[in-house]
């Protein structure tokens, strides 16, 4: 539970609405918290730069951490990216060159304010973490350090778009999120009568971003842009990087630690897509206290011990029964002096019929086949968990019924892994386009199976994500791919299970045709990163989470959260339905009602690989007095064996009157996906 701190070292002041001009004359909307004393004694500036509406949608979260940091001697500037909130202009895609140039302009503006001493930092989670890392790689003069959470350095291979060259369903889900957020009106209370013209400009310039993302099904220059992994040496400032094991962004922390050549620290907890001080599943930590220490060291030259101790701190998760949600994950903090860690060694284990063998064990070369039904994947959970509604993977036993399964003997003692397990397969397929999904599970003595980590590979991407090549049916190929990084303990008496399937819907869009895979055991195995020792306790135990007193909001209408799997045994349709409805919330300080409802549905019929259908719909409403504005955005994606078919609609209402209505239809060829 977050503790609200009523008294902070510095008295603060708040600027509700400030215009920041950028190079082309567009004005971005900012909210600023800073010490009162900064009028006479300038302080460093910290920027959070995201498109999620500082005025309302992120206002509660902002009120927890920006006043807290300001109360410790920093000017915190929360800016909405152009085309969002009250910022002028339009937002047409993520991580554009223009977005990054705007950020550089904002940093320069902050550094030149009389209340700033010329030194700046950037912080953020998700888009904000992306933005900070991407801007850091551009080396702006005033930027001295960044603190980022739930981010990636690789936009193609390790974001919600594609995984292992396979199309993720979260590609559509996130496109639906931004289709909704990028077409919202500004608040008339801040921009006046021109709010409607600004809204019209956004709607007329916008569209379903999934259209663009589907035009780039392989790793090309579109994805290379703003992927820091293309040139790690571009980052020249210190980096504090964090994520969570339940998040989709669990891999990038390790890559940054391994590849950057700057002062850096890594932190990975049990959390979903949340800041560590708001972390779910718990335990949450005193992350804001860590940020104060980080900024004190790098922006104020304070000689503290923030850089002492392990380079990487991670939560070693203990075994738990399978569940779609956890309040807390049992475990302990462990420290690694560097990454890769000297405390971790890779162990190669061969695969034989139904078994994961022992190191060095000779196994027969035997062909084993799997042709998975489309239902494998319905209990996979979300690519990036938000832990609301419950969205983590459930018991894997039903999934394993449609998979090729290998498992160890019961473990004689506790086994801990830390890093990315790697699957190496000698494999063939009966179709030119095929995929394989691999899941590593903790099998309890009673048979329940908890998924620990997973990975997927589009087999046409076996030689690289930029050069897909159709398979020759029946030909054997040697392929290998990593599963997501994890830290997990397997107790004595449990088994470790590897499950392989030829589909994993709806987490991953299925191949064009049903596929039979053949795994040849003589050339197949799994590599586990075994942790064999090292520092068990953190250098400095984390404090309990705390922050500033959040603003007051009132739940006017209740919300609804559902995650429902259905199977109709008449027409054989299987479906996953997700409802994330926050009801209506009243923001007391600005007298505004906000309603948000997101609906997703993923369905298929029997084993018809042309039947997968994905739909997302957002309804968002803002109301104050006799004014209200509502947007309804809907996107549907279907397929044939040769193309994806996209249909999207957008409607905007002022009161009950529909002012805008737009419609998109598009057929996009499948590119070995």
From TrEMBL:
Stored SMART domains: PepX_C
Keyword line: Hydrolase
Keyword Nucleotidyltransferase recorded: no
A GO MF label: hydrolase activity
Domain named Xaa-Pro dipeptidyl-peptidase C-terminal: residues: 292-548
Database matches in InterPro entries: AB_hydrolase_fold, CocE/Ser_esterase, Galactose-bd-like_sf, Xaa-Pro-like_dom, Xaa-Pro_dipept_C, Xaa-Pro_dipeptidyl-ppase/CocE
Protein name: CocE/NonD family hydrolase
Species: Prauserella endophytica
